[in-house]
Amino acid sequence: MDVFNVIDQNGKKIRDRDIINYIQMRLESNASFVPSMRDSVGVMPSEEHTSIELSGTDRPGLLSEMCAVLADLHCNVVNAEIWTHNARAAAVVHVTDDSTGCAIKDLNRLTTIKELLCNVLRGNSELKAAKMTLATPGVTNRDRRLHQLMFADRDYEKVERAELQRIEDKGSRPHVTALDCSQKDYTVVTMRSKDRPKLLFDIICTLTDMQYVVFHGMVNTGRMEAYQEFYIRHVDGLPISSEAERERVVQCLEAAIERRASEGLELQLCTDDRVGLLSDITRIFRENSLCIKRAEISTKGGKAIDTFYVTDVTGNTVDPKIIDSVRRQIGQTILQVRRNSSPPPKAPQGTTMGYLFGNLFKARSFQNFKLIRSYS
C-alpha cells in the first residue's frame, strides 16, 4: 500500500474535485504506464511537431547558438526544456516548420538539422561526442527523458571544472548514503537535500532507469529540507554487492537531485510568440554575458511563456545592473525577475542515519509526513 499526502504548487490542500478525479483516473489506468525508451532513436515526428533530443558539453552561449541554427533553418521552437549539470547539457526541443506550423517530415531537411546542431554541440574542443537524435514524441515523459540523456552522457562523473566551481558551495550539496541491511537483504539508500518540486520523481526515475526496485520507503519534508529513505534491490533480486556499485549509485542519485536544482536568478518572459523570438532573447543573454543554467520554453494560445535560470559566466550571481540592461533591451514588462535561488540547508555532519523501521512511528508524528511505502 502506498500513502501520499500531497499539496498543490502553492502549498495548499487540493480541493478541486476535477483534479482529484483526474489523479485517481490516471493512477488506476494501466494506460498511464509507459516503458523506458532509453535506447530509442526514431525519425517519426508527430503531426504537431518534431522532437529533437540533444546532449553534449555545456558552455556559455550554447543555447543561443542552437536557437540561431534552428531559426536559420526555419524551425520554430514551440516548447523545450534544457538542463545543465557537471559541464554537460541536455535538451528536448519540439519544433515545427515556421511556414506551415506542422512537423518537419522531409528527411533531407531533418538530416541537415541534425548535422548543423551536432556541429554546434561539438564546438571547437569536444572531448566527448555530441549526440542529437530525432525521436518519437510523447513516448516517454520529457523530464524522465532528460534524466536518461544525462545519465547516458555520464554527467554523474566527477568533472574537474565543475568541482572547482563548487568549492565554496560544497556544504550545500545533497547528502546521499547507501548502506547494507544484511538482516533484510536490502540496500538502504538515504538522501537529505533541499526540498523542491519533483524531487521524489527525479530520484525514483533514476533508481528505475538504473534497474533498481524500491520495496519500502519513507519521504519526509520539513520547511526547507527533504529526507528520503528507500530499501532497494536490483531487478535481479540482489542488493548492492560491491563498493564500486555503491559509489556509482550515490553519484547518480546526487546528480538526479542536482540536475533540476534552480541555480541562479530566475527570469520569466511572457510575450506574443513569433518566429525567431527565442533566438533573439538568448542572443541578448549571450551578449550580456549571461549563462543559462536551465530553461523551460512553452507556447500557448499565441503566447510565449519562458523561464530561464541564469548566472554570470563564472557561475556567480548576476550583477543587477546587467539584469536592468537586459530588461531594457527586451522590455521591462516582458521580462520579469522572479527570485534568486536561496542556498540549500547545510548537509548533516556524519553519515549515520536511522533506518525506516526504527523511525517509522517517529515519522508519523511529523507534521509534514509525506509518504510511507511498505510491502510485506
From TrEMBL:
This is ACT domain-containing protein ACR. It comes from the Eukaryota. GO terms for molecular function: amino acid binding. It holds the Pfam family ACT. Gene3D superfamilies: 3.30.70.260. Residues 51-132, 266-345 form the ACT domain. Coiled coil: none annotated. SUPFAM superfamilies: ACT-like. Binds amino acids. The lineage of its organism: Eukaryota, Viridiplantae, Streptophyta, Embryophyta, Tracheophyta. InterPro entries: ACR1-12, ACT-like_dom_sf, ACT_dom. Keywords: Repeat. Transmembrane segments: none annotated.
